[in-house]
Give the backbone structure.
Amino acid sequence: MNKLLLIFYSIFFYNSILHANIHININQGIDIPAPIGIYSFKWKENNLNIKSDDIGNIIAYDLQNSGKFSPIEISDNNKIYLHQFTRKTLDTSSIPKNLNINTLLLGKISLNKQNEYLISYKLIDLINNPGKILLNSYRTAQIQSFRKVAHDISNEIFKKLTGITGAFHTRIAYIIYNKNNEYPYQLCIADYDGYNQKVIHQSNMPLMSPSWSPDEENIAYVTFEYGNSAIKIKNLKNGSIRHIANFPYHNGAPAFSPDGEKLAFVLSKTGSLNLYIMFLKSGLIKQITNNSNNNTEPSWFPNNKELTYTSDQNGNPQIYKINIHNKKSDRISWEGSKNQNSEVSSDGTFLAMVNSEKKEQHIALLDLKLESTKILTKTFLDEAPSISPNNTMIIYKASYKKNSSIELISTNGRFKKSILKIDGQIKFPRWSQKI
C-alpha cells in the first residue's frame, strides 16, 4: 500500500526535464483587447547604456499578456513628438485615425540632479474625453531597476483602465530537472514573465510542490533528500530552513493559508493519505481528515477556515470542501470522470482544477456560485493550475511529446501564451499571491 502511495505521488516528477532560459511566446489571442498606443520611452541624451525603449516594450508585453489590451507601437513617423509631453492636454489631431487607439502612453527618460534616471509618463484618453490626461507621474531608478519600474507602471495603467489590481510584479516558483547538472533537481523562482530566474535550492533527489507564503518571504516544498519525502520551508531572505514534516511514508502537498499562520499538507503515516494542518507559530499539528481514502492536494479558501482537496472516497478522484474546525466535508465537483489538483481563487468565487474525461486532462474552472464547470484548455495532458493573485490569469503545466511547458491562460479562456523551457520541461508552477 505504501509503495503504491509513493508511486502515486511521485509520478508527476520523474519525467526527464531539460533546463534552458525561459521565454514567452504569444500563441493565441481570441479576446477583443482594447488597443493602446505606446510611444517608446527614449532618453533625450541618446547615450544610455541600454535600450531605453525596453521600458516601453516591457509595458507593452505586460498589457498584452493580460489579454485585455492590444499594444500598438507609436513612432515619430506618426507625428507624435515628445515636446507635447509637457502639455496639460494632447493635440490628438496628429494621431492617424486608422490606428483606432483608445488610449496613448507617452514616456521619456532623463537624469535628475541626484544623477538618477527620471522616468516620466502620461496616459491620455483618446475616446471618452479626447486629450484628457488619465495618469501623469514619474519614477526614479537606476538602470538595474528599469524592469521593476516598467512592471510598476504596467500595474498602474492596468488598475486605471480596468479597476483591477495588476499582477505584473508577481513571481512564480517551479521545479526543473537537468540530468547533466551536478544537482539535477532545482527549485527556482522568477518574475511572472520568466525573467530574473534564481535557483533557491538544488538536490540530487527529487523536489516537488512549491508553495509561496502570502508575504513571499518563504517557500514550502517537498524533498526526497532523506530517502522518503519530507516537507521544508525555506526563508528567501536569510536562507534558513525549517523542517515541517518527516513522518514515515509520504509527506506532501504543502499549502500556506492566506493569513500565513497555518500550513496544510498531506501525510500517509496512518496507511492512507489524510489532510493535516500545522499552526506555524506553535508547531501544533491537527489532523483534518481521518479515513481510509486518499485525501490530498489541499487549497485554502480566503476565510482561512475551509479547504478544497482531492479525494477518491466515491471511487474516482473528485474535489471536496472541508471546514477545518467542524470537519464537515462536501463534494463540490461533479462534471467529468475525474477532477483533482484544485486551487481556490483569492476571492473564493471559483477554483481552477484538472478535469479528466476520455483519457485526456484539461484545466477547468469551477464557478462556486453557479456550480458550473468550464473547460479552458485543449492540450492532451494539463496539470498543476495556479491562479494569479488578481484572479485574471492561470498558469499550468502542459505536456507535449517529449517536452512540457508552463502555459498561461486568461480565466475567461480567451487568451493564451506559453512560458517555455527551450527543448525541455518544467514542473509544478506556482504563482505568488502578493500584489
Q: What stands out?
A: The chain has two domains: 2-26+170-431, 32-162. Residues 146-162 form the longest helix (17 residues).
